[in-house]
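Q: Convert this sequence to C-alpha cells.
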Amino acid sequence: MKDNLRAVSFDVFDTLLIRRVCDPVAVFYFVGEESAKRGLTQMSPEAFRNARVEAEALARLPIRDGEVDLAGIYKVLGRIIGCPVDRQRELMEIEVGMEREMIMPMPGARELVEAKRRMGCQIHFISETYLPSDFLEAMLRQHGFMRAGDRLWLSHTHRASKRSEKLFAIFLEQTGLLPGQLEHYGNDRDADLLAPQRMGIRTVFRPEGNPVRYEKLLERHSSQTNGWTSLLAGAGRMVRLEPQTNARVAGLNRITGDVICPVLMCHVLWILQRAKSLGLKRLYFISRDGYVEFLLARHLAARLLPDMECRYLHGSRQAWHLAGLRKIDDAALEWIIGPSDGMNCGSMLKRIGLSWNECEQFDLGLAAIMGGVENPVTEHVRTAIKMALRTDGALHQVVIARAEEKRALLVDYAKQEGLLDGHPVGLVEIGWSGRTRASLERALSNFPLNNLHWFYFGIHRHVRLADPERVHYFLHGPDVERAEIPFLPSVLESFCLASHGSVEGYRREGGKVFPIFRNDVEKHLDSWGRKEVLAAIDDYAKGLAERLAGFGDMANLVVAARDLLTEFCSRPSAEDARLWGTIPFEHDQASHKSLLLAPEARLTFANLRNALLFGSVERSCMGNSMGAWGSGSWAARKKPLYLLAAAATAGYVRVHWKQLPRKIARRIRRLASRDQSL
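A:
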C-alpha cells in the first residue's frame, strides 16, 4: 500500500450514487404526484414540493450541526398539511420508494471503489443526508459498493456535518486513524475538499457528478414543469458521465445529452400529448430530420402510449417538391430557383430532375447562359430559367412529365405506408416554411387529406398556412408572438442526424417502393462522430423511458426548450462551438457538397461588410453563407479579431443610434436604484 494510507472514505450522492434528477428537491414533485394518486393528499405536485421543502427547512432550525432525519421532516410536514401520524408514515414510505426508483450508480464509481479495496484499504461511506441509514446501506449494497466490514457514517446519526469538520473528527476518533492515513473522495468543494484538507486528510475532488451549465438551466424550469425538466436533465447527466475513449467523443456526448436530447424530447412529449388529445393512433416521423425524434418517440410511446404506432416515413424536399409539381407558378419557382448555400447551376437543375446533358438537349440557349454545372446561379440565370419553364416548350414539357413520374411513385409509396387508409394520423417535421407539406399534399390531392395532422417544431411567423386547423407548432408560428431564435433553423437541423443519406426519390422493385438515398457526405459525418451521437441518443431515450409510467402534468415544456436553445444557439461556449460547429452540413436540397455549420471566423471583406451592416459580430462571421451558425463561429475563433469587433461596434451604433440614449438612461436608473437599495 502506498505511503501509510489505511482507509478511503467516499461521499455518497453525486460521487457514488446519482439520482435520475439533478436536484434532489425535484424528487418531491413525483412524491406529491404519487401521493395524490393514492388519495393521501389533495395537493398539486408543486404544492406538495413547496410544503416538503418548507418542512425540511423548519425541521433543521433546532439542529446546530449535522442533518435532520426523514422522520423529523415528515413530523413537521404533517403539521403543515394537517395529516395524522399514520398518513405521515405512508407519505414517508412513498418518498423512500421514489428515491429507490431514482437512485443509480455513478458510471465508473464501482471500479474506483474496487481498486481501493484491492489495495487493502478499509472502505467507508460518509454522507450528509436525511435518508434512513438502513435504506442508504441497502442502496450501496444493491449497486455493488458496500460489502461486509465496510462502514456507513451519516450526519443525522452523529449530529455532525462534514462542513464543520466534526463528522470527520468523530470518524477519526472512532476508527483510531490519523488524518494522514485517510483519503477522502467527494464532489462538494466545501464539505469534501476544503474541510478535510484543513484537518490534514488527503482529498480527491470528484465534481463530475455535479450539474453543469445546461443541466442547471433545465433544473431552473423544474417548478414550471412539475419536475419533468429535472428528469430530462438527469438523463442527460447519465449520458455525459458514461466513460468514453477520448475527450472529443465525451464532448459530443455532453452536448447530445444536455442539449440535443432534452430539446427534441420536449417536442416529442408535446407531440404525444397533442396526438393523444386528437385521438390519433399513428405518427409518421419524416426523414431525415425526424429520425432522432423517431428514436425518442419509439421508446417513450411504448411506456406512455402503448397504442400509439410510431413509423418512419422516407421523404425530403427533393423527393416531394418535384412530385408535387402540377404547374409552374410562382410557388413552384420559389423552391426551384430559391437561393441556398452550396447551390450551383447543376444542383438547381437537379431540383427539377434534370441533368446537364438533358438541359443541353432540351434548351441549348439556357445551357449557354448557365455556362456549366459548377457555375453560380446569378440573377441572369434565374431570369432565364423562369422564362424557359414558363414557356410551353420542350424543357417545360419534360419537367412536367418528370414530375408525373415522381408523383406516381410517391402515391404508391404513401399507399404502401398506410398514409392514405383514411385513419387520422400525424406527420412530424421540424419546420420552417411548410413547403414540404404543401408539396406532399399537392402530390396526393386526388385523395382525401383531412385525416393528416402536421406537427412542427416551428413555423416562420410570416408563413400563410392552408387548413391551419390541421397544423400544430411547438415553439413559434404565424399566430405566436414569440421572437424567433437567431441561427435556430440550421442549428436545430444539425441536431437531426440520421443513419442514412438524404432521400432523392423512390424506385420500384419486386412490387414495393423503396427510397433512393444520396450518400455524398455520409463518410464525412461518420468520421465527424455521427455514430457516437446516435448511440448516445438511444442511451438517453432508454434511460429516460425506464422512469416513465405516465404523462402526469408536464405543464409548459416550451419555455424550457426555448431557453435551452437560446443559450446554445446564441451563447455557446468555445468548446461547444468547436465541437458541434465542425459538423458537415448540407444546406442545399440537391447539392453534393457540404459546408461546416460554423465556418472559421476570419477577417475578410465580406465579414467586415456584415459587421458594419448588421452591427453584430455573430452576423459578421457568416460571410456569404445564409445558414452558418454565426455565434458558433465567433465563439470558436482562434484569434481576437479586434478589427471585426470594432466594425461590429460601429455598426451597432449606426443601426441603434436612436435607441442608445434611452438604453443608457435606463441602465443609469437601474444602477442608481440598485445603489439606493444597498
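Residues 7-16+106-209 form a domain with the Rossmann fold fold (CATH 3.40.50.1000).
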